[in-house]
Amino acid sequence: MTLVQAEVPLPELNLFLYTTVGAPWWWYTRLTWTYGDWMRWLEQPAVETWVAYVRGTPAGYFELERQAEGSVEVAYFGLVPRFVGRGIGGWLLTEALRRAWALDGTTRVWLHTCSLDAPQARPNYEARGLRLFHTETEIQDLPDGPTGPWNQ
């Protein structure tokens, strides 16, 4: 396995990763983004995209966003469905957290999760030292089914 930072902003790459990784987990909020929206997000110096490869094939990714007061959010994290259950998620999350803490001035690393996330997500987060900080209940209107490259 290799982990490579995508240093050239490429909306096509991030859209591929977002739709492929997020399809089973109802990631849909960025599906309405235009090419320009993606480019504006990716061109921010505070945003980094890292892609994990298994034998040259994208297996997962994470996005980091540096925020105010030393906070770094793991904005997106996950695996391509074909690679779920192979022990890669723990390694990739460890690398995401390592990279986030390595950024200058980091004082806090955090992420969001929800009840639509993979069943193994929260145990993975907690196994790597993350702890529950805040919970809230929110009702959202979801698409009729999970969205992604094969069910659009």
Structure in words:
With 152 residues, the protein is of the alpha+beta class. It has a single domain (2-118), classed as 3-Layer(aba) Sandwich (Aminopeptidase). The chain is 28% helix and 22% strand. The chain has 4 helices and 5 strands. It has a 5-stranded mixed beta sheet with strand order 1-2-3-4-5. α3 links the parallel β4 (71-79) and β5 (108-110). α1 (11-22) packs across α2.
Short structural description:
By secondary structure, the chain is α+β, with helices and mostly antiparallel strands. It has helices at residues 11-22, 35-42, 88-102, 121-127; strands at residues 2-5, 47-54, 57-66, 71-79, 108-110. Helices cover 28% and strands 22% of the residues.
Q: Give the CA-based shape.
A: globular
The CATH class turns out to be Alpha Beta
Please name the fourth-level CATH homologous superfamily.
Gcn5-related N-acetyltransferase (GNAT)
Number of contiguous helices: 4
- Report on the biggest sheet: 5 strands, mixed
- Radius of gyration of CA atoms, rounded to a whole number: 15 Å
Q: Mean pLDDT across all residues, rounded? A: 87
The proportion of strand residues reads: 15-25%
How far apart the termini lie comes to 30 Å
Please name the CATH architecture: 3-Layer(aba) Sandwich
Strand order of the largest sheet: 1-2-3-4-5
The name CATH uses for the topology is: Aminopeptidase
Helix percent band: 25-40%
Tell how many strands the DSSP assignment holds.
5
Please identify the structural class as seen in this structure: alpha+beta
Low-confidence stretches: none
**Count of discrete structural domains:** 1
Q: What is the N-to-C succession of helices and strands?
A: EHHEEEHEH
